[in-house]
Amino acid sequence: MCVVEITTKDGKNRVVPSCISKVEEGLDVKTNSEKVIAERKLSIQKLMARAPKSEVIKELAKKYGVDSTPLPWKTIRIACCAHYAHAFARK
């Protein structure tokens, strides 16, 4: 859920986990863009597939207008910020 859309001063644009993004001069950060919302909806679908009875996940789904998931739970891998932070810290 903690993703942001960044555009660097040289025009590169991507959605990234906010906890691993370095601040730099000229960086444009969007926290609620269409791309960010789409990524959050996908994350919610993944969470719904893994824990469909979770009240917290149901509330998130309602907030973002996600009412179902087409994803089979056995194929879902959910990466969290801790995973990304650890992976990028090694680089």
In short:
The chain has 91 residues and is of the alpha+beta class. 40% of the residues lie in helices and 14% in strands. It has one domain (3-89).
Describe this structure in words.
This protein is α+β, with helices and mostly antiparallel strands and 91 residues long. The protein has one domain (3-89). It has three helices and three strands; from the N terminus they run E-E-E-H-H-H. It has helices at residues 34-50, 55-64, 81-89, and strands spanning 3-7, 13-17, 28-30. It has a three-stranded antiparallel β-sheet, with helices on one face. Helix 1 (34-50) runs antiparallel to helix 2.
Keywords, separated by commas or semicolons:
single chain, alpha+beta, three-stranded antiparallel beta sheet, elongated, disordered C terminus, 91 residues
For the record, the count of structural domains works out to: 1
| Shape descriptor | elongated
- State the order of secondary-structure elements, H for helix, E for strand: EEEHHH
Fraction of residues in β-strands: 5-15%
Q: What topology emerges from the helices and strands here?
A:
Layout: E1 3-7, E2 13-17, E3 28-30, H1 34-50, H2 55-64, H3 81-89
Antiparallel strand pairs: 1-2, 1-3
